[in-house]
Structures are given as structure tokens and as C-alpha cells.
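To whoever picks this up:

The parser on our side crashed when reading a file containing two proteins. I've narrowed it down to the boundary between the first structure block and the second sequence. Both blocks are reproduced below exactly, byte for byte. First block:
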Amino acid sequence: MSKSIQQYILSKLEQRKQLNNFRALRVTKGLVDFYSNDYLGFARDENLKALVAKEIKTQDEAFLGSTGSRLLSGNSEYAEQLEMFIADYHGAEAALIFNSGFDANYGLLSSLPYRGDTIIYDELVHASIHDGIRNSKANAVSFAHNNVENLEQKLKTATGLKYVVVESVYSMDGDFAPLNEIAALCKKYEAGLMVDEAHATGIAGTKGEGRVTSEIQNADVLARVHTFSKALGAHGAVVLCSKELKEFLINYCRPFIFSTALPFYSLAAVKCSYEFLSESRERREKLFALNVLFKKQTQPKENFQLIASDSPVQSIVVSGNQNVKNFATKIQEQGFDVRPILYPTVPKGKERIRICLHSFNTEEEVSKLAAVINAL
């Protein structure tokens, strides 16, 4: 490596350290999980593991790797049948599997909106959506978080084809988008609504189908993104849409066209997770009961604020990178694994402890966590 490049790398790393937002990988053991996205415990469920192993044995000819992109050697009848199954589960016309939620959001936003079009997005949408928007050639403007009046103001002045992008459940605040009002505005102004359902998948609805299917008309939504890596405990994602939009993405979406497809093992895990999901009502009910318990027992004080949320994501705002890191360390020292979310991942002054509740957590664990927080 040249000295000038090395100096640049070192200077950027030092800049992170000076700003107190340096990122590093870590492994923890022996702490109670209050930080992962494994909301229903699928990723660690022994019965689900056995179901996946049984499914794999039924496909003796399946390769370890997919061997190529879906358009070359990586496609299979199994993948196509799984897409039809997932589309039916969520009440959609068609489905297209992607390697990750990031790829799905990025690919959808970077390929469909074009020069002269306008993308209007909630200011708190995921980084994958921001990156997809940047790589599109469309105009883009944000609207105030969950503010339908502000959204309508932006729709009135939008030019070209109009797209509105929201999350049904926001990954950092854990709050819900007002989907009915947003869908009505999109219909009024002929805008295409795109909804990221990553943190609603497996959680919302009578069978974990998400908020769109359970709360509004599927036909009112241009595209939905569901991920398999959170409540489903697997890996990958899917875009739910019309047959025509699916064909469009197959032809124009670069992350889909040029990525090696998911291997058979990942597809089998997704299929089994969906089968498991339809029988997991009790887990969802317990999860939301723990949510009520946590909010009831946690007492906000001057040094922290609990963001209002009815989802498994409960965020405690502790302003300042060092303050929130200290707060997290003290909780971890009591045996609970939580993680600080620092600026610039969240806005300055909105640094927080992001707590994820799970169906495998006990009432005693939740009560003890609340007590530790209150004591701080």
C-alpha cells in the first residue's frame, strides 16, 4: 500500500475515534439477549433447525452453492416455487427474492425511479433506501417523520412520476407509519407507495404477514420489501409487487442481475421459517405482552427518554456518544446485552440504547432489565 493511501486510511480512522463513533466488531457470551433482531427466537429454535435439516434431505441433488446468478445458473424450480408461496402468504401477485434487505431496497430504488421523477421519503428510512435513492437519477426530498401533512405538501410540488417510501415499523424508533393516511395520499396524487416491512415481517398481522396485508389494501402499494433475517431467523429478502414490476426488476435491477443467487440451504431455511411462522401466534402474543410489561415498568428520567413504540424495538434516548456508551456498559455489567446506537447512525442528540424484546425473554428478565435502567 502506498504511504499516501495508508495515511488517508489512518486519518479517517482517527477522525472516527476523535468523534467517539469508531465502529468495531465484537462477540459477547453469557449475557441475556436484548439486542438481536431474532424477535421470535427462530434463529435459535431447535425444532426449526430439525425442520430445515429434514427439508434439505428431500433435495439430494441440491448444490452447496447456487453456482451463479438467477439469470445464469443460479435459478431453480425450488426458488420459483418458494417465490409463489411467499407471494401467496402475503397476498401479493408476485415475489422476487434478493440476497438481503439492503440489496432489495437498494435495487428497487436505484432501478425504478428515473431522471425527472420524484422520490419522497420519510426522513428516518433505512440507509439502504438512502443509498438506492442516491444511485437513482430521480429528484429526492424527505418529509418529516410520520407527518402526513408535510408529505402532502411535498406531493403537491413533485414532478414526473412520484414515489413515496416509508417503513411500516421503523428500525431505530420502533414506531409505526400511518399507512392508511399515506396510502390515501398516494392514491390522491397518483404516487407509487413503497413500504419496507423488515421489522413487521413475522410480527404484525394474524399470521405475521406484515402491516400492509393486515391493515390496508395490497393493491394500494406498488412494492413491499420483507426480510427473512429478523423475525424469520433466516437470511435474504423479497420484493412483493406486480408481475410486470417483477419482470422489470429482472431486466433492470443490477443487484439482482449481477449477484450470485442465494444457495439452496438459505432457500430451504426461508421455506421452513414461513411454515413455522403460521403456527407461532403464541410467540407473537407473548412478545407483545413483554412489550407492555417493559413500558409499564420503565420510568423515564431527566437523563433518558423512552421513545413511544408498540413494537419489539424499544429505544432509550441518551444524548451524546460517550453518554450512551457508558449507559450501555453499565447495563451490560448487570448481565443484559444491549447496544448503543451512535451518531451518525442516528441524528445528533438522538443517540440511544436500542432494546429488542423477544418471545424467548422471560418476564423476570424484562423486569430486571427495567429495574437496572431505572436505577441508572
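<<boundary where parser fails>>
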Amino acid sequence: MTKPNILILMTWPHAVRFVYENLLRARFPDISIKTVATIDEADEAIGEADIFMTFGVEVKRDIFPKAKRLKWVHAFGTGVDGITDQVGLSKDVIVTSTRGVHGPSLSEIAILHMLSMARDFPRSVRSHDQHKWDRFRAKKLQGRTVGILGVGLIAEALAPRLKGLQMRVVGISRTPRPIESFDEWRSRDDLVNAVADLDFLVLLIPLDETSRNIVDDKIINAMKKGAYIVNIARGGVIDEVALHRGLSSGHLGGAALDTVHKEPLPADDPLWDAPNLIITPHLGGFYDAYPEDSMEQIGSNLERFIAGDFDGMINRETR
């Protein structure tokens, strides 16, 4: 096919906004690439694009009805919500995502959150800011039971790291499968019983209509008193009003969210003031070498796309 036009929507700061464009230009110097910083700019330019690349969470509204030439959308993250759930996206458009590079980084932030809650690290930081020597007894992760809801490549990377901390690791999935480092499998279809004895529940489940608000009042109340929740999936998989209730009542020992229902989270959102809650601004996969780590699969897919080998493109979403 003729050389495609690529449109990239990237809201990162200007100093790093063009990193994907630069990496692609180095490998494909003859291809037209345009990077824009806002959804309004993307809305204006998408009519000329054959390929659109972005993070799904950046697509704040349906701009696809104007995309008459569009043949392929690539999500820089694992999630395609914001893309495949837009009614204006033609069913003929190929959708791919970035997979297989997030395991180490998301595992690290999951463990960071778990340690921070068990050790009440925010309390130590606040005491430091007040020049206050506040010594208290913390909890350890060793011997605790952690359940991972949603067992994919990231969970496969996280589980052995948790085993290294001598935790008991439970996989919660629709389809149990033999994977090293998991001690037990439980059914997602019986989530109430699956979470009953967990000390920690880590959410890694993709967001779709079957998983939206899957962790609600019923699930939170089924967890034992003092348990912790870590969400590094999507904000929509947990009912955040129910979470606020579980924290305010003292039923939950704490929670940590790296992703929330609305990003960026408004300054007046009640979540900011929920007790024993840690919020980080979607930092899990946001690390220095992420674009370089993901470029091999993006570049390989682009080569196949140009060659017309659409069936050979990897990480395709079933639509």
C-alpha cells in the first residue's frame, strides 16, 4: 500500500511528547507522522489519518466519525477502553494494543502500594514533614494472602515477585490455568467467596461491560475486616463510592489507586479525602524506557501493515 499518514495523540509534557514520533521516524523516515497534544487537535486532524496512535484514556470523546481514511488504531497501553467503546469507530478498523512490556513496572508499583499500606508509609512521610519522631508497629507482607483478579501477562510477572516476599498468591480468573508461582485458583464467577480470606486484593482485570464496577459494596463487604485493595487496572473496575464507604467505615484497612474513574482526578473529588487511601496519578506504566520497550512490537506491526499483512499483526483486539 502507499505510505500511510500517522496521527499521534500524546498529552505528555512537550519535552517528551514527541518520543514516539521520533522513534518511528528513525525506523520509517519516509512516513508522514503528526503528533498533537489535545483531543481537539486530534479531532481536526483525524480525517487525514490512516493510522491513529494514542493511549485509550486520552480519547475523551468520539472523534472517529470524521476518520474516513482510518484503517488502524494502536493503543500505547494495554487498555483499549476509550477506543473500542466509541460508537463511531468502524468495525473494519484494526485495533491493537501494547502488551508484554508492563509486567516489571506494574509489579513494582503494586508492591510499592502494598508495602506502603502495610508499613503505613504515608504516616512516616507526614511525620517527617512535621519533624516528628513517630515510631509505630507495622505489618509485614510475609505470610499474607494476596488475590490477583485478572490473570494475564502482568499477573504472571507479579506473582513470582510476591512469592519472593513469601506471600500466598491466589489467582482469580474465569479460566484457571497452570502458571508457576500461583498457589491456588479461584473462580471470578464466585467473587464473593474468592475474596473472603484475602489480606490483599490486586486488580488487574481489563475494563469492559462485564467488569465495570465488579468490585462493589457486595465484594468489599465480603472481604475480611482490615483487608487492602490495590487497583492498577482501570478506575471503572471498582465502584469508588463503595470503596469510600468501605474505607470510611473502617471495614477496609486501606486502598491504593493508581488509576481512577476520571483522570486527572478533580481537586474536589471526595476520593482525595477518603481515609487510608493512597492515590498515584497513573504511574504504573509511566517509566523512562517505556516507549523504547514497546517500539519493537509497534514497529513490527507497522511493517506488516505497510506490506498488507494485516493478519500477521500482533496484539489485535477481537471486535
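After patching the parser it read the second block fine. DSSP finds ten helices and twelve strands in the chain. The CA atoms of residues 40 and 63 lie 9 Å apart.
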